[in-house]
Amino acid sequence: MANLTDQTNKWEMAIDDIILSDMINMCNDDKYFIFQDMVEACLMVFYRDRQVIDLMKSKPHAPVICTNSSDKIIGAYPPNGVIPFKKFTSWFAPFGSFLTVKKTAISFSELCTASISVT
């Protein structure tokens, strides 16, 4: 988890502006604007989480595979294998309520395996 947060802080991806633009549009809604910082942190970590592509049982599209100059496969882009689309943040934002003050970001694999109790 710390590694993903470090990656978010160290380098910017070409799709970060697309993600942030979609997030800003979603945060104009009265229900979600208070979660803007948490949703932003979670989205940035989600798009850098390489485990997402491995956990998908059914992939929505073929991932974009990146190669180096000697045509050796170095991974998928974005690292999670999910190409951002319009209104994706609206699907993702409800998970903002699962975030706590101590933990500002949660990996997708942690979210999928979390045990949620309703009281």
Give, in order, the helices and strands. HHHHEEHH
Low-pLDDT segments, ≥5 res = 115-119
The shape, in one word, is globular
Tell me the β content.
Answer: 5-15%
Description:
The protein has 119 residues and is mainly alpha-helical. It has one domain. 40% of the residues lie in helices and 8% in strands. The chain has helices at 2-10, 16-27, 36-46, 51-55, 88-92, 108-113; strands at 64-67, 73-77. A two-stranded antiparallel ribbon has the order 1-2. β1 and β2 (73-77) form a beta hairpin. Residues 115-119 have low confidence and may be disordered.
In short:
This protein has helices at 2-10, 16-27, 36-46, 51-55, 88-92, 108-113, and strands spanning 64-67, 73-77. With 119 residues, the chain is mostly helical.
